[in-house]
Structures are given as structure tokens and as C-alpha cells.
Amino acid sequence: MASGINLTSQLKKYFGFDTFKGNQEAIIRNLLDGKDTFVLMPTGGGKSLCYQLPALLMEGTAIVISPLIALMKNQVDAMRNFSEDDGVAHFLNSSLNRASIEQVKADVRSGKTKLLYVAPESLTKEDNTSFLREVKISFYAVDEAHCISEWGHDFRPEYRRIRPIINEIGQAPLIALTATATPKVQHDIQKNLGMIDAKVFKSSFNRPNLYYEVRAKTTNIDRDVIKFIKNNSEKSGIIYCLSRKKVEELAEILQANHINARPYHAGMDSVARTKNQDDFLMERTDVIVATIAFGMGIDKPDVRYVIHYDIPKSLEGYYQETGRAGRDGGEGKCVAFYSSKDLQKLEKFMQGKPVAEQEIGKQLLIETAAYAESSVCRRKSLLHYFGEEYLESNCGNCDNCLNPKKKVEAKDLLCAVVEAIIAVKENFKSDYIIDLLLGKETSEIQAHLHEDLESFGAGMGTEEKTWNAVIRQALIAGYISKDVENYGTLKVTKSGMQFLEKPVSFKITEDNDFDEEDDETPTRGGGLGAVDPVLFSMLKDLRKKLSKKLGVPPYVIFQDPSLEAMATIYPVTLDELQNIPGVGAGKAKRYGAEFCVLIKKHCDENEIERPEDLRVRTVVNKSKMKVSIIQAVDRKVPLDDIALSKGIEFDDLLNEVEAIVFSGTKLNIDYFLEDIMDEDHLLDIYDYFKESTTDSIDAAMEELGSDYTEDEIRLVRIKFISEMAN
């Protein structure tokens, strides 16, 4: 059928384009010839057209299986814009009422409808399958096909039922499309859809116009994000956060700082969520702060930056989300904020899931950490992950290539790694190999009697992060490989064996160090982020003087992150001081005057122009939750009951309570402490904080010993700060 059609003229007729992009024409011809087709094409490559045009040209209706209602609506609207008849495309999902469903079915039966978008859940309903059995189906398209694979970043169990349902409805050619799939995920998709023999069209995953950067995530991240957005004002951008709560909070902070931002997550009212999405598409809003629920199929070509506030759970998720920048080939900045603590939190969330799922999740997190920490070209790392070789030595458009680190010879280190992998019969992952080389007598190494091997302790003079760099860069160079079927066990390749026999030069760059700054919880700062180090030092001296005069530890007055912000934003009135994170009205009134005088004097003497654009306004009472927590504590409701009623973990409640007291609000939690703690215990911790120069929980636990739990120490610290500072 395909051979007789002038596809370029059809493309012009239906879509107004003069030429096809990349593999589009070959894909369409393969489908028109009735053959199963597998399409791997990065975001912005034009996947949708690969099934939209053949659907218009073939007899019958194409069934497009798609994961999101918002995505279906978006695609149906787009198709209707290309046609005179609205009936040309419909969707069938849970958002439709009975009358609408009957209208859809009537249009399909009449032959008007060329594309019918269906959610996998709707496909399984008996009345839908029996209806589709009556219909002439031109082909099936499975969009966002990575949802089928447990190794994919958006795994949807219902996607794994697609093949049996297709068999039940009736045979027709099948096209599966995804913007992101590692070789492992690709195989998983083909196997599950019963299309192992399908012709595979794989476009390059390289997006040369995208700039990739990973930054250390510090206590000043909100300021860093605001500064970045203001330096890119009036440009469209997306900020991804992992939690709905963070989406809401960050959107509020951005709005308070005069940035036109809106939140988007699956827990929002659907009307508000759709409005925010439409406002972004129609450029009534510059910035969308979203969870990963936002973006699939969002066809906005001029998104100029994508920020990852939290590092994603997988590199596939990261690649697809960054792929929403610069789809028109123009500027696209992709900035991710990374802290190893974020990955530890994500790993914690996996506890309680089935073991296989935990293993997969951990492996995906290890790959993400490797990408973030590596100082190798970001583009090379990403493309290697997707099974594509990138031969350029410097891409010129990522942070690591624009600021290259000095390379060091690691020939002997690679020999040691290869020997260790062979010694343990290629049955272990990279962390085990590193433990073996460092001579760590872990229970696992002892269980396998590997402390007797020659490789045990062979790398004791070299740091763990250097061994990580050797393994990561040896993977990219092809000397070793990862067996993903076995959760990432290391194997030695043919090149690796040749290298061992006849070693050649192997130079590596040391990993990036993201642990130089003190990136503990926002209540403790490292004092390294201030724009004006001279003023920061003066503010610390003033704090010290006041602490002696008032007989309280310095951190009780203002914490380091607050001083850092003062040395960046230069507040000179009590009102301005209240815009500083961690400074509420009470603290500003009690301690603020002398700090404002000092800052004003410093600005006058040094002719400093105060940077209004760097002023990070915090959101007053930024969540109703804080107000209701204060009210509940006033009513003497036990803290664990408050956490239960809010539907949050006790740990998260303590974070909220700490934020309340650190910003200057007094809370009396004695009623709760009397219930759960021994009085001597309480006094010991209280006295410790009286004498200590730091409010660090880790330091307190080390000093006080194992008789005291972290929760007890945090609770007493809340009491201490509330009484001494507020």
C-alpha cells in the first residue's frame, strides 16, 4: 500500500509541512505496509505524526493507547485543528459521561473517526472491548510504551495487559513509541507486546541544543532558583519537584518574589490543574512548578529551561523531563540540583515494596548518582546509558565540558578493577567490588570468603570516590559492562580482557564533589553561600557579642542560613529582615535592630547597591498546616496525634514544628515531653544545648551517646530554642 502513495504531498495536505523529520517517512511506510513497528525517538522528534498520518490514510480507525487523560485531550485537540470535522479524533476514558460515550461510538461506527485514544484501563472494560470487536481497526499504537517495563520510569502494571486484550479484540499491525528506553527497557517492551520481530527505528538521543548542568543542592536552593529565573525572565520554564507539598510551597515562594508561576500535580482539583496547564501553554504563566505528572505529550516548543529541584528517581525520567526544553531547536537549559541525601530519602521510600522492585529502584538510583557525580561529559554519560556511543571528546554544551577537570592516569587502577571482577567470577555489583578493593570486612565479603582473595585490600591507598570514577569511566570506555538482568553485576568485556593482557593509557577525571558544603537540614548552614563574606563575618561577630551579653548560644539568635541570606540581600529595616528565611516577626523585633544598623552602615561605607532582584521573600504562614499545628499545640494535642490527623510522618511533623520555632514563634510542648520522656533525660539534653556552640543533631547524638534517640534530641532542641530565643 505504501509504495503507491506520495507521502510528502499527504504530509503537506494534512499537516502543512513540506518535509519529514528524521525517520518519520520510513516509519510511516513500514506501518502502511502492515508491519509491526517499534519507534525510539527523543522528545521533540515528532513521534505523534508517525501514527497520525497513517491513521488518516488507512481504512478504519487507529486505536491509540495512551496513559494520561490530559495527554489524550491535548492530542485530540491538535488533530481536530488539522481537520474540518471534529469527529476525526476522539478519546474514550473515565472522564466522559454516558451521552458523550455514545456520541464517540456513533462517530467511530460511521467511519468518521480515524484516531480513537483509549486509556489502558478503559481498554479492559468489557463493553469497550465488545464495541471495538465490531470496528474495522487500521492499527494499534501504544504511546509512551516505556510504561510497560518495570525498568521504565513510569511503570504502569495495566500496560502489561495490552497484548492479551489486543488478541481478544482482533489482529492489526502494532506500532509502539517511546521517547526514552535503554536497551533493557526496549527488549522488555517488545517481549511484552509480542513484537520481537518488529522493525526498530531508533533516532539519535543526542539533543545538541540542550545544555546540561548539575549543581550542589544547598540550603540556599530557593535563592538559587529565583536568581536563575530572574536571569531568564519572560522565558518559559518548568521546575520539577518530587513531592506535591514541595510543588505547592515553591510555587508560593516564587509568586511572593514576583515570578509568574503556577503549581501542577495530580492531587490538585482537576479544573485548577487544567487551567494552570492551559495558562502555561497560552503564555499567561511563565513557570510551571510540577511533579512528573506534568509534561507527557505537552507540545510546547519554546520551553527555555527545565530545573530539577529534586534529582529524579531514574535517568530515563531525567532525560524525558529535560527533553521538554528547546523542542524547537532553540535554547534549552537543563539544571538539576543534586544532594546525595535526596537519593538516600528516595531509597528509604522504597522500603516495604517487593524485593525485586526495591532492587530495580536501587539500581536506577545508582545510575542517577553516577550521572550527577561524574565529571565526564554529561552528553556522553546520557547517551551511553541509552546504548548510544558519543565520539566527541568535548560537547561544549554541558558544565563538565565547559569547566573540564584535569585528567589523571588510572591504568593500574583499571587493572585492579578488572582483576577483582574476574576474581569474584563476575557475580557482584560495583559497590561490592569497591569494598573488596578497599579491604572492608563486610558480612557479605566474609560470607563469600573473599577476604582471602589477592584483590582484597589491593586498593587501600586510593579513595572510594576515585574507584567509583574508574568504574564509571571504564563502563563508558567499554572495558566492563553491567548485566542489568542481574541488577547491575559487573562483567569484563573482550576489550577489558585485552586491556588486562596489554594495558594502555587510561586517563580519568575525578568525580565532582557535592559534599564540600554543609548541606545538612535547613536549620544548620555552612556559612559558604553568602554573597558578601566580609559582611557575613561581621554579622557572625555581632551574633557572638549578643550571645555573650544575653547568655544564649549564638544559633539561638539567628542561624547561619539566615546570616548568609542577610549577607546576600542586605535587609536594612525590620520589615525587610522578616523576608529572610528563618526570621519571623518575633525574632526581628527581639534581635533585629542591631543587625539592620550594622548592614546599613556596611552598605553606606562600601557604596553597595542592594540587589533587589536577589531578595528572596518567604511566604508568611506559607501553609495552613503551620497555623493548624500551632493551634493544636496550644490545645495540648499530642504531637503523634497531630501527625496522624495531618496524614504525615512524625519526622515530617517535627520538620514543620522546627520551622515554626526557628522563625521565632513560641511553642510550648512541655505537655508532650512530660508524657514521653524521663525528666533526667530531658534535663541532660537541655543542658547540652545550653553549653553547646552548635545545634547540630549529629553532634548532639555523638556527644550524648546511644541512650538518647534522635527524636528525643530534636524535641528538646525545639523546647530549648522556643524558650531561649522566642
Task: Please give a quick description of this structure.
This protein is an alpha/beta fold and 726 residues long.
Gross CATH architecture of the largest domain? 3-Layer(aba) Sandwich
> Into which percentage range does the β-strand content fall?
5-15%
Largest sheet: 7 strands, parallel
So what's the CATH class of the largest domain?
Alpha Beta
Helix content range of the residues, please? 40-55%
Counting structural domains, the number is: 5
CA-CA gap between termini: 79 Å
Number of helices: 34
Please tell me how large the radius of gyration is: 29 Å
What this model shows, in words?
The protein is of the alpha/beta class. The protein contains 34 helices and 17 strands. The model is unreliable at 516-529 (pLDDT under 50). It is globular and about 90 Å long. The strands form four sheets. The protein has a seven-stranded parallel beta sheet, with helices on both faces. A six-stranded parallel beta sheet has the order 8-13-12-9-11-10, sandwiched between helices. A two-stranded antiparallel sheet has the order 14-17. Helix 2 (24-32) runs parallel beside helix 3 (49-57) and helix 30 (650-662) runs parallel beside helix 34 (710-725). The chain folds into five domains: 2-202, Rossmann fold (3-Layer(aba) Sandwich); 210-374, Rossmann fold (3-Layer(aba) Sandwich); 407-509, Orthogonal Bundle (Arc Repressor Mutant, subunit A); 533-614, HRDC domain (DNA polymerase, domain 1); 624-725, ATP-dependent DNA helicase RecQ (Arc Repressor Mutant, subunit A). Helix 5 links the parallel strand 3 and strand 4.
